User: What shape does this take?
Amino acid sequence: MSLSRVATRSRIGLTAVPVHVELHLSPGLPAIAMVGMPESIMREAKERVRSAVISSGFRWPDSRLTINIAPASTPKSGASFDLAIAVAVLIASGQLPETLAHTAEFYGELSLSGDILPTSGLLAAAWCNRQTSTRLFVPTADAPHMAALAEHVIAVKHLNDLRMPKHLTRVRPKNTTIKQHVDSRSSLPLPSGQPELWRAATLSAAGGHHLLMSGEPGAGKTMAASLIGELLPPPSEQDQLEASLIYDVVGQVFDGHRPQRAPHHSISSAGLVGGTRHATPGEISLAHTGVLFLDELPEFSLATIENLRQPMESGEVRITRAETTQTYPARFQLIAAMNPCPCGYRDSDHRACRCSSAALARYDSKLSGPLLDRIDIFIKVSRSKIADVMKPSEPQQNQLSALKRNIIEAYQRQIGRQGCYNARISTADLIDLCAMHPRTRNWLSQTGERLKLSGRSLHRCLRVGRTIADLEGRDEVTEGDLSEALAYRKDIDPAL
Assistant: This one.
């Protein structure tokens, strides 16, 4: 047979579209022609495949090879097509049976010796085949992760393994569910003598609320961000799946825990939101279902952090480039920290502020009102007393364990009630889910008018109040819950 057709897939964003490698052997001088809009990294596959086939003991056909990656209009990139091309060559030259390619797809990069190397971006192919009977021949290193999504995954270590495909067995999925032990001790330092900070961190972790901390250097803002990471409830299987697909796109391994990303303030817009020519995901998508910690928030470029406004509301980001448009999930929880002024000591009890009025005005203008209006909780952080810092850590560990259990219970209450964090409750359902007494509604209406709250500010307060009630195990949101929620907004809402 001089013609073969082998199936594979091309990853585009978080999905993978079917692609076929068509190969034809024809008389003429030995040469290789590749068509179908292949990129440079795919054109180099010709030499990799040829060396791998010869090194594996197969015969390279002395004919003209025409390789078509169809359909030609589908974008294709990466080295995962190497194995499919090699199988097409061997089937067309009669060295492998044609039946090998029936109801099968092939993925993997080939080394010059014939080893099949791991390749990023294969989880999307497994996800698209999760309900099919298609056999997936994949690199051994990628097989366990893909087997968790698709049923018929076959690990291939070397090109020679395809000589006897019946000896290749289906990979069994491993149980990758993360179990979080709420009584485990934290290996990270915890804030000392700051009950307000612990309270804000608890509310943020329990309800998925955005948090902005302001305080002088050394007050414990970064430590509080690590505390929130410790308090977060374990991710669901769906959360783990979505995060795994995103991490696989950028060639990183997802460890199964809630993501915690902390980019430097010099990051570009493309690095934070996503971009490049292929519209790859950025830090906000890598923080999906987890925490995005932005330390020294005013030091970020204003244009960069303004890009957060739409994803903070919608939970997704749409990246458009000249060649493609991709939409990635971005349900991240923003935890931000900042100094109160350039020198860091405005309103400090320990040191006088040396900033001029003009410097303070410039510093305050670095954060826009629309961005701040999307943050649920704002808190001022003060330095801990030395006596509190010197206290034993055992009480803090006990407090952490108790808070973890309380947060998990509150989280389960939210998921059972509305299927999402309180911070993600839709505006249409918010009033009903808060289950307020008519007297509480009237109080909130009058308070909102007196404080000149915007509609968004009012809804943020309701969501935080809903979380406070969940931590207390109550279905009804009370005036006390809403009063505390309003206290967390007064320093960032210019109307107050």
Observations:
- Residues 394-418 form the longest helix (25 residues).
- The longest strand covers residues 15-26.
- DSSP finds 20 helices and 18 strands in the chain.
- The chain has three domains: 3-167, 195-420, 425-496.
